[in-house]
Amino acid sequence: MSTTRQDLLQAFDTLLQPARFKDYGPNGLQVEGRAQIGKIVSGVTASRALIEAAIAEQADALFVHHGLFWRGQDGRVTGWMKQRLALLLAHDINLFAYHLPLDAHPELGNNAQLGARLGLQATARFGEQDLGFMGGRADGGSFASAYALAEHVKKVVNRPVVIEGRPHDAIKNIAWCSGGAQGYFEAAIAAGADAFITGEISEPQAHYAREMGVAFIACGHHASERYGAPAVAAQVAAQLGLAHQFIDIDNPA
Contact at 8 Å (CB) between 46 and 24? Predict the structure, then answer.
């Protein structure tokens, strides 16, 4: 089966509601390809490696979290941008990208999917545009320490984590926001978190964690955002009768 480019765009927009968000770049169709679509490949970032993998899988459309165009970037089509665009255009592949809308979806988004894999249940939202999730263990329990929580996160995402602040105390109230959301740490503290999980840690957050007595756990930008794109693409593909494949291009950052 197949669908039109416009019907696929409408399905993504209906699910993710991009008009609700003030974002750092355009959400939706970023590069126009063939009009008829039978197979979607999803991934985290529209890198050359992912585009080449989608070509090899004969995809008609790419669905990603990190697209090609960002506010304030150099608009010239040279170097890596030319290479990626040339591949998409030469093979007539549509590129769909959704940034904050994909983080925020309450069931299929990056934060919801990361929380589900960690066994966390969100009971509230916090931070700018309500992107941060707040809650605790779905079984109602707590973690014996921030170290125990960090080890759990490490096992789930299968990569090393960084932990700072309050390592030995029990952890019940947990806030999380995937990717580069270290700037949400102070909002998480204000919301009453015992620990905050995100992808990256910057220099100031280590000091805040130590001084405020709230654990900060960084598990990798890519690792924390691997789950939303395949969840959304799989649901839309099933809805429209399309083939779907998730391709994870490893990234240690």
Answer: no
- Strand (E) or helix (H) holding 43: strand 39-45
| CA–CA dist 126, 48 (Å, integer) | 35
pTM of the model: 0.96
Tell me the C-alpha distance between 82 and 138, whole Å.
Answer: 46
Fold of 110-224: 3.40.1390
Tokens of 78: 């040279």
Measure the CA–CA gap between 217 and 175, rounded to whole angstroms.
10
- Residue ranges per domain, the chain? 3-103+227-246, 110-224
- Whole-number Å distance between alpha carbons of 186 and 204: 11
* Distance set, CA 1 to CA 14, 90, 196, 243 (Å): 21, 23, 43, 8
Q: In the prediction, which pLDDT does 169 show?
A: 83
Class for the domain spanning 3-103+227-246 = alpha beta
pLDDT, tens digit, for every residue of 16-47?
Answer: 999 999 999 999 999 999 999 999 999 999 99
C-alpha to C-alpha distance for 98 and 9, rounded to whole angstroms:
11
φ, ψ of residue 20 to 5 degrees: the values are -75, -15
Q: How far apart are CA 130 and CA 21, in angstroms?
A: 10
With beta carbons less than 8 A apart as the criterion, state whether 161 and 197 touch.
Answer: no
To the nearest 10°, the Cα dihedral for 98, 153, 217, 181? 10
H/E element, 36: strand 36-37
